[in-house]
Fold this protein.
Amino acid sequence: MTQESRGKTLGAAIDGVITALEGLEASAQVTAIRAACEHLKISMPGGLPQSTAGSTSEVGTQPQQPPSPLPADIRTLKDTKNPSTSLEMACLVAYYLQDVAPAPERKDHVTVDDLDKYFKQAQFRLPRAIDQLPFNVKNAGYFDSAGSGAFKLNPVGYNLVVHSLPRNAQKSREHRTNRKSTVKRGAQHRKQA
């Protein structure tokens, strides 16, 4: 161990790893982390699949890459799925807690406190009335009530996160345009009545 490495703090080491990985694609980031763990002879952190022994069959061939795992933190998941509304982000938080978060954080429901915490961790803009958000998500059809101020992601919300996000730019623009025209038609209809 060199004098320089002994003086490094944990925070500085984390910053160095993040800086080194920032410009890479997600699959390359996972490969780099896996290789570093193998080099240092440490077990793989949760969320990263172990590489398979003997994954190269001949000299000169590339090792087989396992499918990219889900991001192990909410900010990376948010950047991957790119939610555009607080409703989509609330669904993403519920999905993260249910299926992606490290084991100590996992749970099958979400509360206002969870939404506040994970919106901040993901650096997603907080809605004005975050206390009302889970009710709005429930009314939109993505959450079911789980009692005592808790909500569960239902199959519609799950499908939104897993199969509809990220929305491509064209579909997202069309969705917003269609929604605006529907709202305008509804307002015009109410005025005529």
